Amino acid sequence: MIRRLYAGLLCLLSPLVLGFTLWRAWRRPAYGERWWQRFGWIPRSRGPAPLWVHAVSVGEAIAAIPLVHALQERFPGHPILMSTTTPTGAAVVRARLGEGVTHVYAPYDLPAAVWRFLHRGRPALGIIMETEIWPNLYHAAARRAIPLYLFNARLSPRSQRGYQRFHRLLGPALQSLQAIAAQSEADAAAFRALGATRVWATGNLKYDLPEQDATRAAGAALRQPWGDRPVWVFGSTHAGEEELAMAVLRTLRQRFPQLLLVLAPRHPERCASVAALLRAQGLHAQRRSAGQPAPPEQEVLLVDTLGELPTFYAAADVVSVGGSFVSKGGHNPLEAAALAKPVIFGPHMENFRDIARTLLAAGAAVQAADGNVLAITLAHWLAEPGTAREIGRHGLRVVQAQRGALTRSLALLPERLRTEQSGPMADLQA
Fold first, then answer.
1. Three-state SS for 104?
2. 317, 309 in Cβ contact below 8 A?
3. Angle (deg, nearest 10), helices 157-164 and 167-175
4. Which residues make Cβ contacts (< 8 Å) with residue 329, sequence separation at least 6?
5. For range 144-165, the mean pLDDT
6. Is 350 assigned a catalytic role?
7. What's the rounded Cα separation, in Å, for the pair 299 and 285?
8. Cα–Cα dist 36/140, whole Å
9. How confident is the model at residue 419 (pLDDT cuts 50, 70, 90)?
10. pLDDT-derived band of residue 292, with 50, 70 and 90 as boundaries?
11. What percent of the chain has pLDDT over 70?
12. How far is Cα 119 from Cα 219, in angstroms, rounded to an integer?
């Protein structure tokens, strides 16, 4: 009854959802791309039933890449249908998986939208990354006998408190899943508290990064025109962190006048405003899309492209991770750690609390309370490159030691899959 009330309320709100979608597409043109897919109007799947993998945005898409490769190897007869919610997530899928998968945008949790999505996509199974709990979608998949899995699942204490208020709606949705592969025992316990029954702690897929030889080679080639200049990469920044980076850069260049800051905003559509901010501060900056090497007088390289952040990490001497010096919950430090780079992040790492604790305990990262600590730490690493390299080696060892979540998660999947899905449309409408 509660799910039916939820579904009915969303049906009544459908015109507002459509209006919001068109408004957002007008305000942020990237969201206008294939906006109709968010209402389930995806291309019809032909041939063998695909394996559907859903990753909300950039972080989830990156974590899903080894999973996609493993699925392609294990089930070669099934194509991969990959969905994201954000355009930046879509860009990562295009950049790193190319034509190897079919990308679509995930549907809103409207009854008609999820019905169309599943009917047109015909997935043999679905794997949803991290924390996406959509009652109508889960219910519709169960009625159509499409097994759904939640992989790399996590719940922060704050999210758990919020979800707990709706446990009578979310509990049955979680119980409809074939399995939940949680990042940790604490996450597994949080999902059980919400009503989930088939939950296993399998580890964090973010540690199962592919081998980095190609990325290291690309980073070396990228760095070659910069000569011996020290390079600081500040990745995945948000509003407020660019100002912090500029202040720290001015301090550091007093001691390291050739220092190059590579600044990579989390959302590339912000690059125009960040470039204006750099100009207002009188800094010599250049956009990555200009495609030219950084001249000696250039102080900042602004990354306005997608999919290149790991290459810049590989080219760096020192790395700081954004989303952590403002209240955004942090971003993944493991891409830099896997490249044996010393990593520093700010006080806000709620979304990566276990990873942050593991790196800190191993001496593989530093957590800075503010910009002063950030500047002091970076100056120490730049002055003592041997110390920086040792911290980076600790990070690489952590990544190597923590691998294995992918194998444990894949063990939850069936050995064989049906090649076609069938079932009355009326079931999905129920």
1. strand
2. no
3. 110
4. 156, 323, 348, 349, 350, 351, 352
5. 89
6. no
7. 6
8. 20
9. low
10. low
11. 96
12. 43
Q: How far apart, in whole angstroms, are the C-alpha atoms of residue 298 and residue 292?
A: 11
Lowest mean pLDDT among 187-191, 239-243, 349-353: 349-353
Neighbouring-strand partners of residue 231: 260
pTM for this entry? 0.85
Going by C-alpha positions, the residue among 22, 40, 39 that lies closest to residue 31 is: 22
Residues 180-219 pLDDT 10s? 999 999 999 999 999 999 999 999 999 998 888 999 999 9
Which are the contacts of 167, defined by CB distance < 8 A and separation ≥ 6?
Answer: 194, 195
| Tens digit of each residue's pLDDT (9 = 90 or more) over 303-322 | 998 888 999 999 999 999 99
The residue type at 413:
L
Q: What contacts 202, CB < 8 A, 6 or more positions away?
A: 181, 182, 183, 405, 408, 409, 412
Task: Give the active site residue among 60, 130, 241, 335.
Answer: 60
On whether the CB atoms of residues 172 and 144 are closer than 8 A, the answer is: no
Asked if 21 and 38 touch (Cβ cutoff 8 Å), the reply is yes
CB atoms closer than 10 angstroms to residue 415: 6
Q: Which pair of structure tokens corresponds to residue 318?
A: 């020192």
CA distances, 333 to each of 71, 250, 259 (Å): 25, 24, 22
CB 148 within 8 A of CB 176: yes
Q: How many CB atoms lie within 10 A of CB 288?
A: 20
Average pLDDT of span 348-360: 93
151: helix, strand or coil: strand
Q: Is 429 exposed, middle or buried (0-12, 13-18, 19+ CB in 10 A)?
A: exposed
Tens-place pLDDT, residues 4-41: 888 788 888 888 988 888 888 888 888 889 999 999 99
